[in-house]
Amino acid sequence: MRPGYRAFLLWTVYGIMFAGWGAVWIADRIEPLLMVVLLLAMVAGLYCDVRGRHVVRTSWNRLLLLTGLGLAIADWKFWSGSWFLAVVFLLLYVGTVRALAPKANRDLQQMIGLGFLQLLAASVLTVDLGYAFFFLLFFILAPWALFAVAVKAEFEGEPDMLRGAVAVEGPIEAPAGAERLLSRPLLSAMLVAIAMTMIVTAVFFAAFPRLSTGVFGGRLGSTRAVAGLSERVDLGGFGDVLSDSSPAARLVFERGRLPVEQLYLRATVLTSFDGTSWTAPDRGRVMAAPNGHLGLAAGVEPGEPIVRTRIVTEDLGTTIMPLPQRAVRVASPALRYQVNDQFGVVRTPGYQGGLRYHVDVAPQRYWRSINWNVPRPDRLPAEVVRYTELPDRTQLPDEIWRYADRTDLGWVDEALLAFQTDFDYTVELPGDVEPLQVFFKRRAGHCELFATALALMLRAAGVPAVVVNGFRGGEDMGDYVLIRQRNAHSWVEAWHPRLGWVPLDPTPPAPVPSGWLNRAQERWQEFADAVWFFWMDRIVAYDLATQADMVRGAQRGARQSGQVLRQLGGRFREWMRQGGAWLALGVGVLFAVALLWWFRPRRRNGRNRGATETPSWWLRLLRELERSGVVRPSYEPVDAWFRRTSSDPQTADLLRDYQRWRFGGVGDVAELRARAKAQRRQLRAMRRSR
Q1: What is the CB neighbour count within 10 angstroms for residue 33?
Q2: Phi then psi for 370, rounded to 5 degrees?
Q3: Same domain, 266 and 304
Q4: Does 430 or 20 have the greater pLDDT score?
Q5: pLDDT single digits (tens) 321-340
Q6: Residue 346 bridge partners (DSSP)
Q7: What is the pLDDT of residues 429-486, one digit of tens each?
Q8: For 621-630, how does the pLDDT look when each residue is reduced to its tens digit (9 = 90+)?
Q9: Count of CB atoms within 10 A of residue 368's CB?
């Protein structure tokens, strides 16, 4: 076997083993040190197959396999506690033993099967985008590896690889002649077969969506707690979230759209303040909504349009479902809800992880259009009175009581304008000090300090107010809006005498990082997130609803294309009526001439290029020889007949140069054609002179 074929065999088989190992590595459920050891052992096995000296002897196989089984049982009972992870470890262990031992053809086939089983097991452990790379690697290499092993077995007279020969010590070899199968037409056919298989697989994937989330269970992201979404928030413990660009959620607008600058996702509502920290109220009642549809208390004005959005969150470390302002309905099948009716906070008791759910939203009014120039109410509804409670006055800065004696609420707009223009946003505050005192002294702080200051001012003036934590804004990615961890935000909801609870945001805009490096990093992160979201939303979570969305999108595209074609047809008819018929005829004639010229017969007269068929000028020379009375039997090769009948050295040189050009691509075809023409003329002259 030529070294090229052996490399082809070994690299495809070990490539499949690497694909299985990489998929398990991406899952991050096996100890990294153990995974590195297994990878090094796999590389050592490849080296042994090339050199012909193996670490493991064939007689050790049974003992080593029993040892692996014992280690897997021990892993299940004492270490990982998971029988499934123990099975994954056993697959990796057996593959490593197979790599280090001498191999018969059936062992090579078993290595391919073990790589597939490792890939299959990893699909249960992870939905990471990196898994797609290793799956694609296996998909491409598997046909080549099976072909290479089958060819080796066929040439060795071992068609049944399940009962193949016993492995022997030495490098992997195969009988001479097998390399001839690695021809360009066969390799091209294999590539076409792989491409067709991928197309058919994609069609089946699109036609038969999953009916449930199965082993993934709806967990669509990695666990990552978000600052500010807990039910107790200390003013000094906000942390530096401004630089955290990790994704937190994604919004896909299916009907209508909310402006990104007005996008607020509510999560935690904080109602009680003790001077240093905020806490949340009771969680509310637990309920199972019919078909997963939950109606919320937010009212909808007559004729107000409804925006429908699909939200996909990472695992935010909480059971709270972030919802847009004025959400009127939530739909998430197979989940129970825990609802605080007064503030519309929704939780998913018993489940904490990445979520997918639909939300109907009544678009919120422009916040600054709310008229606060109204008298302060003399009496408050009983259910909101407790949201005016304050800690002892000595615990609060004097600025909190600035508007306490006002009899109207017009000062709210004044305070909002002052916060927006006279204060700066920063997360760099000194520790071990009173956060509110420092905030008013430095006239700078983060969003929780702005929200706390305004909420306490409102309470001091007798206006019920709470602090809301969630997310503000996001990045418009075209098909969806990306919300990052750094979009975590705090704002205020105050009780308006005529409108009820309304949102207020006193925080000025945060500084935007500048510089080409930051911009390049942002672009790369946007591209990576778009690829990741397509993988998670259209591949991992592909279900009947997603299929229906795709069908509706295709129908909309078809309708729009039909409208465009009809418009073009109408314009073309109008143009024809205005005298464009003759011009169209001329264009058609030119097009027909161009087609005839393009498909004209071409002569194979390229320089330094061999031919797959016998050229016409050589056939004319052979016919001239036959006319001269030199008859060639049908069984005699042309070159042998030519040498037998042509004793002229010039003719022999012509035959040699022609064969070098025909079968090796060496030589100048124009020169050969001229020499053949001269030889033909010489033969014709000799024939006529007889």
Answers
A1: 8
A2: -70, 130
A3: yes
A4: 20
A5: 899 988 888 887 656 777 77
A6: 339
A7: 766 578 888 899 999 988 889 999 999 999 999 899 999 999 998 888 888 898 988 8
A8: 878 877 776 6
A9: 10
**Domain check: are 200 and 239 in the same one?**
no
For residue 599, is it within any domain? no
CA atoms within 13 A on the CB side of 64: 18
Question: Which one has a higher pLDDT value, 27 or 224?
Answer: 27
Spatial separation of the C-alpha atoms in residues 570 and 574, rounded to whole Å = 6
Residue 558 lies inside a defined structural domain of this protein = no
DSSP strand pairing (264-270 vs 465-472)? antiparallel
Dihedral, CA atoms, 177, 181, 183, 189, nearest 10 degrees?
A: 180
Give the residue from 502, 530, 558 where a domain finishes: 530
- For residue 511, what is the DSSP state? P
Contacts of 601 (CB under 8 A, 6+ apart): none
Query: Is the Cβ–Cβ distance between 34 and 90 less than 8 Å?
Result: no
In a domain, 667, yes or no: yes
Looking at the structure, do residues 101 and 204 belong to the same domain, yes or no?
Answer: yes
Lowest mean pLDDT among 39-53, 249-263, 374-388, 459-473: 374-388
**How much is the pLDDT for 251?**
93
DSSP string across 308-357? EEEEEE-B-SSSB--EETTEEEEE-TT--EEEETTTTEEE-TT--S--EE
Q: Of 206, 240, 326, 228, which Cα lies nearest the Cα of 280? A: 228
For the chain, the domain total comes to 3
Region of poorest pLDDT, from 32-36, 218-222, 236-240, 439-443: 218-222
Length of the chain: 690
The chain-wide mean pLDDT, for the chain, equals 78
Is-contact 492 501, C-beta < 8 A? no
Helix and strand totals (H; E) in the chain: 17, 20
Q: Do residues 275 and 391 share a domain?
A: yes
Domain that holds residue 202: 3-208
Residue with tokens 């990445």: 354
* 576 or 666: which leads in pLDDT: 666
Q: How far apart are CA 229 and CA 249, in angstroms?
A: 13
Strands 356-361 and 327-331: antiparallel
Alpha carbon distances (Å) from 375 to 144, 177, 371, 406, 496:
81, 98, 11, 9, 10
- Chain center to CA of 136: 13
Q: Which residues contact 33 (CB under 8 A, 6 or more apart)?
A: none
Q: What is the pLDDT of residues 232-282, one digit of tens each?
A: 888 866 544 455 778 889 999 988 888 888 889 998 899 999 888 898 877
Neighbouring CB atoms inside 10 A of 235's CB total 21
Q: Sheet harboring 272-273: ordered strands across?
A: 232-234, 277-279, 272-273
Instruction: Spell out the residues 6+ positions from residue 77 whose beta carbon is closer than 8 angstroms to its own.
Output: none
Percent of residues, the chain, with pLDDT higher than 70? 73
